[in-house]
Design a protein that fits this description.
9-stranded mixed β-sheet, PmbA/TldD fold, globular, about 25% helix, alpha+beta
Length: about 450
């Protein structure tokens, strides 16, 4: 079926079923994945997929999808039937129709790079890591082409490229095992790969893993802590970012429910989510509800200014829609999600921060963790840690974790650095997986520290 015929079919069906609003996403995804384990090729694939996702609104949402355009009409009809049967009381932002064709352009499209060159990249990195017997390298790229239309008359075509590279090593000794890794990624082309100093990063990954084998366990208790930009990013993303997602707030799963306009952190703190940042892994042009991506100051001067929202929650909370509805694919419904979340720069230098710490820790990198947005507590592991004594960085510690109550830690911030970095790509899970980025500067606060073993 041709696209024009499908849209006309949807118009006729909406009138017959009494559907107030509907939207259709047609997506074409071209992707490449390669991975290597200890010098052996583990995966090499090039895939293409086309699909349709349909949502209809009648006070409540109906959704259906198909990975075969021969079933496109059926997907439309199913979504409309579900909406009609689910009739609810909710309202959504409608706004004006949008017509635009936009893309995130790259200097050197990875689609022009032969897969043999991508495989050569993995072999080069594997060769650089041969000093360790257990190593892995992975590469992925995707080009997502989307046609979004809705019953308002919007017609939006976008092209978004995304590329990622990750390598890691695992070392063993003295009955212990340690792993260290490095990840690169962005809405970029092959220029990302060409800009990486591979020998430097391969050497660093090996060196850090071996150092961790010799490191001691961390102390336990409440300490002054300096978080590096990567750990600042994961803290802000996990502990705060999810708590300002309006669907979680609406459902009572956030400590920030009912606190718009209130002070929730120190005056120096400003937290932003900005999907429009050039080249970042979590960047996009329009969200999956056809709303333009926007820079959002979630916290400014310590005050909670707004929530990240979608068409429904923006109306529910009386907020301006800010383009944060994202779906993993055409086969998933959009949810309120982050893009690129970070802490804006402060006025402190790193050495100035160190001088403020008599007895504390410098914690570096993200090793995963857990967060309770409703209870407002968190625990995150760091890749590595260092004791700080009288303003000087000392002995390395391993398997170190940071924990506490989100609002207490935000209120105890003593210094925010000038050195903002937003270059820590990853995938965020919330029932669905979407690409994100986060970061910030060094931040000095006070929290609980302990071991992860």
């Amino acid at each position: 079926m041709r696209v024009v015929e499908l849209f006309r079919f949807a118009e006729r069906l909406a009138e017959r079923y009494g559907i107030d609003y509907y939207e259709i996403r047609l997506m074409k995804v071209s992707s490449t994945r390669l991975s290597m384990e200890n010098g052996q090729l583990d995966e090499l694939s090039q895939n293409g997929e086309t699909g349709i996702g349909v949502r209809a609104f009648n006070g409540a949402w109906g959704f259906s999808s198909a990975n075969d355009m021969k079933r496109a009409e059926k997907a439309v009809e199913t979504a409309f039937k579900i909406a009609r049967l689910s009739r609810g009381e909710a309202r959504i932002y409608l706004g004006d129709p949008v017509e635009e064709e936009a893309e995130i352009k790259t200097r050197k499209p990875f689609t022009d790079v032969d897969i043999s060159d991508k495989l050569s990249l993995l072999r080069e990195i594997d060769g650089l890591l041969k000093g360790t017997p257990s190593r892995s390298v992975s590469y992925a790229d995707s080009l997502v082409e989307t046609l979004y239309v809705n019953s308002l008359g919007s017609e939006i075509r976008t092209r978004v490229p995304r590329i990622g590279l990750r390598f890691s090593v695992t070392v063993r000794g003295n009955g212990d095992m340690q792993t260290y890794w490095k990840t690169f990624g962005g809405t970029l082309g092959w220029e990302l790969v060409e800009g990486i100093d591979l020998p430097h990063w391969a050497s660093l990954v090996e060196e850090k893993a071996l150092q961790l084998l010799k490191a001691r366990s961390p102390p336990s208790g409440e300490f002054e802590v300096i978080m590096d930009p990567e750990l600042t990013g994961v803290f802000i993303h996990e502990a705060l970012g999810h708590a300002v997602e309006a669907d979680l707030v609406k459902n009572g799963d956030s400590i920030l429910a009912g606190r718009l306009g209130e002070r929730v952190a120190v005056e120096e703190l400003t937290v932003v989510d900005d999907p429009t940042l050039p080249g970042k892994f979590g960047s996009y042009i329009y969200d999956d509800e056809g709303v333009k991506a926007a820079r959002v100051e979630v916290i400014k001067g310590g005050i909670l200014r707004t929530y990240l929202n979608d068409r429904e929650t923006s109306v529910y909370f009386g907020l301006e829609p800010n383009g944060h509805a994202r779906a993993q694919s055409y086969a998933h419904q959009p949810l309120v999600r982050m893009g690129n979340t970070y802490v804006e720069k402060g006025s402190w230098g790193f050495e100035e921060m160190l001088e403020e710490v008599r007895d504390g820790l410098y914690m570096v990198g993200d090793k995963g963790g857990q967060v309770d947005t409703a209870g407002g507590t968190f625990t995150f592991g760091a890749k590595e840690g260092y004791l700080i004594r009288n303003g000087e960085i000392g002995e390395m510690v391993r398997d170190v974790a940071l924990s506490g109550k989100t609002l207490e830690v935000l209120g105890r911030i003593r210094a925010i650095g000038r050195d903002v970095r937003i270059e820590f790509p990853g995938y965020c899970g919330k029932g669905q997986s979407v690409p994100v980025d986060d970061g910030g500067p060094h931040v000095l606060t006070r929290a609980l520290v302990g071991g992860t073993r």
